[in-house]
Amino acid sequence: MSIDHLLLSELDKRRAQSLYRQRRVLSSPQDVEVEIDGERYLSFSSNDYLGLANHPEIVEAFQQGLSRWGTGSGAAHLITGHSAAHHALEEELAEFLGYPRVLLFSSGYQANLGIHQALLGRKDRTVHDRLNHASLLDGAKLSGAKLLRYAHSDMNALEGRLADPASGRTLVVTDGVFSMDGDTAPLAAIANECRCGGASLMVDDAHGVGVHGPQGRGTVAKFELGPAEVPILMGTLGKAFGVSGAFVAGSEALIETLIQQARTYIYTTATPPAQAEATRKALQLVKAGDERREWLQQLIGHFRRGAQQLGLSLMNSATPIQPLLIGESADAVRLSERLQKSGILVAPIRPPTVAEGSARLRITLSANHSMAQLDRLLEALQ
After folding, report:
1. Which of 65, 107, 234, 244 is positioned for an S-S bond with 277, CB 3.0–4.6 A?
2. What CATH fold (topology level) applies to the domain 20-50+289-381?
3. 57-106, pLDDT tens digit by residue?
4. Which residues carry out catalysis?
5. Tens digit of pLDDT for each residue in 159-204?
6. Closest residue by Cα to residue 381 from 18, 42, 11
7. Can you name the CATH fold of 56-287?
8. How far apart are CA 334 and CA 340, in angstroms?
9. DSSP states along 304-362
């Protein structure tokens, strides 16, 4: 039996289970209104929380960066790919976050793999929230360390995991904002458990940086924590920052260790310097973005009140991620298709991304949305 025959059979099973995924090809820039196959849609499916993905100042910075640096970096950071633009961005991010140093990665996935692989080995253990992002779990498995998981945001469960004796290092890992549920980790309580249990804490704040905390410094800053409580902070630049890439913030020793040992850093071509220039401009807009963040909070409150009046089963989230719990995958797909027919894009989220029986519509809000657009979504849901 040929490999194609086996693969096609598996694909048919996915279709039958309403788990088959398809790409949409946009013919417009990323924004709250997009064009697909010649049709305009109102989108609630992007992580562009501050509406910066097509901001003219960032576009101009990218263009100027292209004129100065060209289109590619040409090599890994440790060869000749680390430009002055990359270096300046790292320094500016470190100052912004209040950490000694920052290291750039090409993606959040690579950052999470690299952190685990560089810091942990077979004698160590890593303790994860059960709803952590797939990249964190994959990093844990790659490291060879013992992987333990605790019930979502359950401090008694975390305490129980840390109570067991360990022969090596213990790294506790959690998302700051959980990407599929939209809720926020109780970071102050987790940091306290780590202190009492002799563990180090890593926070993946991909969906928090730019949105939460003073000047958008993220969920760690929102809880008034810093390097002492959260020695490893990962964040991405392709969500609230509207660009691409990721970073790890930490101590001098941590960053130097990642430079020396993180395989996803050592063996990956650096992102284009022009992208770093665009991200430096995005950072300025994030820092000055209180109006955007305040408007986003107004949108979240308006949507949740409207959904409650309609009796919709929204999950408990005060973030731009507003999941509408449906249950069965086929039902989530049908609802998403009906919304698309009315000109609205909302992505259905199905297993294995979420647990069986908890398929949902993942509604995401942007500071570029208007109240009228939000009301249009509520009317369509009704």
Report:
1. 65
2. Aspartate Aminotransferase, domain 1 (3.90.1150)
3. 999 999 999 999 999 999 999 999 999 999 999 999 999 999 999 999 99
4. 179, 207, 239
5. 999 998 888 999 999 999 999 999 999 999 999 999 999 999 999 9
6. 42
7. Aspartate Aminotransferase; domain 2 (3.40.640)
8. 10
9. HHHHHHHT--B-S--SSEEEEEEESHHHHHHHHHHHHHTTEE-EEE-TTSS-TT-EEEE
